[in-house]
Amino acid sequence: AALCTRRLLVMEEIFPCVPLHHALDAQAALVARQRGVTKEEFLAAEKARVEAESREAASRGRLVRQLSHNTYERYIALQRVRAACWRGAARLYNWTIGVLTLGASRYDFAALSAEALIPINAASLVDELLSVTAHQVLIDGCFNADPHPGN
After folding, report:
1. pLDDT tens across 7-52, in order?
2. Torsion over CA of 77, 83, 84 and 88, rounded to 10 degrees?
3. What is the DSSP string of 23-69?
4. Which residue, 9, 46, 47, 61, is the most exposed by fewest CB within 10 angstroms?
5. How many other CB atoms are found less than 10 A from the CB of residue 86?
């Protein structure tokens, strides 16, 4: 059976997705582990930090400064390069010291990949969501009130 016809496109079969809240939850757990705290402690500290920043900005009549889409993209690119360098260094180590010690001293690539924090670009997601919704409302004159991959 075709997944794409003139009348139907089944998105879940073409591009399997992880719900955003699951991805954000996993990202929070990774950051917490890197900082040596539990996920709950990390989230409580972040909530307190954001609330304090909001009160400070409100007391001065300003908005809280947010990172832009481009700033996130540059940071994500930097993190990808950093992770690639670590993987390259681990491969080099495994093929030199690891071989000389007959495998007794080797780096685990899976552990290195698990520790690489490449964040979700929340600014890009918001930009895309607003762009799509604004186009539907302002250009098309109607909008999808039930947005999910099947619609």
Report:
1. 444 444 444 567 777 778 888 998 898 889 999 999 999 999 999 9
2. 160
3. HHHHHHHHHHHHHTS-HHHHHHHHHHHHHHHHHHHHHTT-PPP---H
4. 61
5. 16
| 78-127 per-position pLDDT tens digit | 988 888 888 888 888 888 887 777 766 676 766 666 566 777 787 787 78
Distance CA 48, CA 94 (A): 43
Distance, CA of 146 to CA of 20 (rounded, Å):
16
Question: Other C-beta atoms within 10 Å of 42: how many?
Answer: 19
Answer for the pair 20, 103: CB distance below 8 angstroms, yes or no. no
